[in-house]
Amino acid sequence: MKQPNLQLASAYLRAVAERRLKDGEKEFEQVRGALTNSEWNRGYLKALEGLLLTLRSNDNRYLYLQRVKLEDRTVKKLKEEFKRHSSSELHAEYDRGYFAALTDYASTLETVRPWTSLNEDEQREDVAEAEAETAKS
Hints:
Distance between the termini: 59 Å
Strand content: under 5%
Radius of gyration: 18 Å
Structural class: mainly alpha
């Protein structure tokens, strides 16, 4: 993994993890403009673009990361798998860059932990529904 790309892409990855589409689009353009035109960077950028497309899409039938139930254990496993691919000499530079971006995204997910706020929102909705049912009785 090339550390400068993680530093460069951290605001973008955080925006995507927090599902802030407008901020993500703005940050993506900054990352795109700052990366040099190497195979590794093209793969890295393509993965970042894929994350943005995933965020924009409402159809998750073909989008792997939207179908995965995010939680600490799952994200850790994904990160390990992506990291293994990003450092494998069997993969081309483009592929290693691609998987490095996904590794960076998984690291961001570990930090941001968006599933905790989603769980809190669901719990608030459940409490509100229960209170509404109680008020009806």
